Amino acid sequence: MKKIGVTIILILLILTASASVLATHKLGLDREAVKDISKAKRATDKYQNVKNAIRDGYISTEFCVENPELGAMGIHYMNPMLMDNVINVKKPEALLYLPTKRGLKLVGVEYFIPSSETNVTPMLFGKNFDGPMPGHSPEMPEHYDFHAWIWKHNPSGIFSQFNPAINCQNN
C-alpha cells in the first residue's frame, strides 16, 4: 500500500514538473517569468468577481477599449492607490474586464508606471514595458504600461496590448 502511495506522489511530481517545462517552452519564458505569472494569477483570482475589485479600490474607466484591426483590451478598472513607482507582480495597477451577457469577465491585467517615476524602461516577466507613451486621456500622464493576458488566451501573445480573440460587443 505504501508503494502505491509513493508511486502516485512521484507521478504527480513528474506531471507538475512536466507542466512547468511545457509552459516555459510554450510561452517562450524562463522559469522565473512562469512563476511570476502564476503569482499574478493567484493574486488576482479573487477579482473574477468585479465586486472584489471595487472593494479593493479599483475604479472602472466605464468604456471598453477596442481597435477594429487589433482586437480589444476590454474595460479597465484602475487602482489609483497603485499608481506610483512600484511594480508588484501581485498588485497590477489595472484589471481588464470583458463585458459579457453574464456580466464582466476578468481577462487580463495591466501594469502601469508614469514615465516621470523612472529613468529606465521597466521590466516584468523578463520583458520590457511598452512606452513611454502619451496618456490616453488629458488627465493620464506619459507612462509605460504592460498588459498580461493571464485569464484569456491571446493569439497575438500573452503580453500584447490588444487581444484579437475578444471584442466589446455581445460576448
Overall description:
Residues 5-25 have low confidence and may be disordered. The longest helix has 26 residues, at 2-27. The chain is α+β, with helices and mostly antiparallel strands and 171 residues long. The protein is built from 3 helices and 8 strands, in the order αααββββββββ.
Topology:
Blueprint: H1 2-27, H2 31-44, H3 50-55, E1 59-67, E2 71-78, E3 94-100, E4 103-114, E5 123-124, E6 127-128, E7 130-133, E8 143-148
Quick structural summary:
The protein is an alpha+beta fold. The protein has 3 helices and 8 strands, in the order H-H-H-E-E-E-E-E-E-E-E.
Overall pLDDT confidence:
86
Category by helix and strand content: alpha+beta
Q: Main sheet: which strands, in order across? A: 1-2-3-4-8-7
Distance between the termini: 50 Å
Number of strands: 8
The general outline is globular
The secondary-structure element order is HHHEEEEEEEE
Sheet-strand content, in percent, reads 25-35%
Radius of gyration, whole Å: 18 Å
